[in-house]
Every structure is written in structure tokens, then in C-alpha cells.
Amino acid sequence: MAKTVVAAGRRLAPLPSWLAAVALFLLMVMTFCDVILRSAFNSPIAAATELTRIFMAIIVFAALPVISARGGHIAVDLLDGLFRGQAERLRNVVIDIVSGALLIWPAQQCFKLAGRARDYGDLTEYLGIPQFYIEYFIAIATSITVVVLILRGLVELVTPLAMRHSETVYKSAD
């Protein structure tokens, strides 16, 4: 059972990255077309701002769980010198679990706002796209990030030091 879950997770893991990449590509094409239409024909894409907001939300929130799982967030190392060995491991556990726990409230609020937008029938200004679609996407992506961060902290807590990959493992793979 556990192997099946892990295998499914590995197959699904690239999907958010691909979604973010497609959204970025579409944003790039739309911006290019908007500039050409604006400059050459004085006729910009009317919904460009609306589409930019939607694509940016997709890019950011599709990438959030992936970046969190990889530990790729920007980190300031002001106190790294104070933590070595077990203390460093415990610090990382606390940071991951607390970060995941702190994201629970924003995820809940996103679900509430998405439900409210659905109930009110809120639509985007130019294209008339129901706003709750993107709001539910944000809520779900934030919820996945909560799970990823908490699991990351728990795995760090229970994984023996010998089982963890050191930086030399990553360097040798390059």
C-alpha cells in the first residue's frame, strides 16, 4: 500500500510544475501579443490585466507545494552558526511544522472566500470567468502546501541521520 502511494505521488509530482510552466508560457505569449497589438495597431488586449492576474496566481500557487517539498524557499542564515547536528535537525523540524501549521488559517480563509464568490456569482470583469475557480485553486494549493510542510517536518524528525541524503550525494549526481 505504501509503495503504491509513493509511486502515485512520484507520478503526480511533476504536474504542478508543468501547470506553472504552461501558465508562464501563456503569460509570455499573451504579453508579447499585447505589446505588438498595442504598438502596431493601438489595440491592446482588453483582458490582459485580468489574464495576467489569473496566470500569476496559477504560477505562484502551483509552484508553492513543489518549492516547499524541495525545501527551496529563500532562507536567511542569521542563526545557522548557532545550530549544529541534532539542534539543526530539530530547528528544521520546528520550522517546517510551524510553517505548515501557520498556513492552515490562510487555507481556511481561501476556502471561505471561494465559497462566498461562488454563492455571490462573482465573475471576472472582462471575460466573465467565475472567480471561485481560481480561488478554490489557491485554497487547494495552500492546503497541499500545509500537508507537504508538516510531512516534511515529520519525515525529518523520524528519519535517522544515516538515511538522509547529504550534500555530497547531490553533488555526485550532477
Automatic annotation (TrEMBL):
Record family assignment: Belongs to the TRAP transporter small permease family.
Subunit organization: The complex comprises the extracytoplasmic solute receptor protein and the two transmembrane proteins.
Tripartite ATP-independent periplasmic transporters DctQ component domain segment(s): 27-157
Coiled-coil stretches noted in the UniProt entry, renumbered to this chain: none
One BP term from GO: C4-dicarboxylate transport
Membrane topology classification: Multi-pass membrane protein
Record-level GO cellular component terms: plasma membrane
Protein name: TRAP transporter small permease protein
Regions that span the bilayer: 18-41, 53-76, 133-155
UniProt keyword annotations, A-Z: Cell inner membrane, Cell membrane, Membrane, Transmembrane, Transmembrane helix, Transport
Purpose of the protein: Part of the tripartite ATP-independent periplasmic (TRAP) transport system.
GO MF annotation terms: transmembrane transporter activity
Compartments, record wording: Cell inner membrane
UniProt-listed Pfam families: DctQ
Main location: membrane
